[in-house]
Write a structure and sequence with these properties.
168 residues; Beta Polymerase, domain 2; five-stranded mixed beta sheet; NADH-quinone oxidoreductase subunit C; translocase; cell membrane
């Protein structure tokens, strides 16, 4: 019997109450929001519950919403997959202007590089990560380039001529 979205929602709300919210389908994937302090336990349940069985972390990424209020400036999105039932879900948590959330590396080892990449580009701190350091950008960088406040171009560059970019 296929895993129904109502089953997922009922199990989560029964255990976590108002810490999980906004359930619904979004682009053919069952999605919901989790309060950041409950995220680790929600993902643990999704993985370890025998009925849910979400054993594969497909993706983890960050998002910056500069126009949102201070409690929703950043988000971390997790995509999980139940291979047995071929069911995918999206779990989203919103973070404040000082973004931090508990690492899930103890649940999914593949989260190691995904969390490092998200920290590198967005500055989201994954508490408990064993080696949170730059993975794609230079170690000397002091900013996080995927944040919306990051400048699109380096105004100090002398090696480009605006004429070649359609600007005069």
């Amino acid at each position: 019997m296929a895993l129904e979205t109502t089953t997922i929602q009922e199990k989560l709300t029964q255990k976590f109450g108002d810490k999980v919210l906004d359930f619904g389908m979004s682009k053919d994937i069952f999605s919901f929001e989790v309060h950041p302090y409950a995220l680790h336990e929600v993902i643990r349940m999704l993985k370890e519950d025998k009925d849910l069985n979400f054993h594969f972390l497909t993706d983890l990424c960050g998002i910056h919403y500069p126009d949102n209020d201070d409690n929703h400036q950043f988000a971390v999105v997790y995509h999980l997959h139940n291979w047995v039932e071929n069911t995918r879900i999206r779990v989203k948590t919103y973070l404040t202007t000082t973004p931090e959330v508990t690492s899930i590396i103890d649940l999914f080892l593949c989260a190691n590089w995904m969390e490092r990449e998200t920290w590198d580009f967005y500055g989201i701190n994954f508490m408990g990560h064993p080696q949170l350091k730059r993975i794609l950008n230079m170690d000397e960088m002091i900013s996080h380039p995927m944040r919306k406040e990051f400048p699109m171009e380096d105004s100090g560059r002398t090696d480009k001529d605006d004429r070649f970019f359609g600007r005069t």
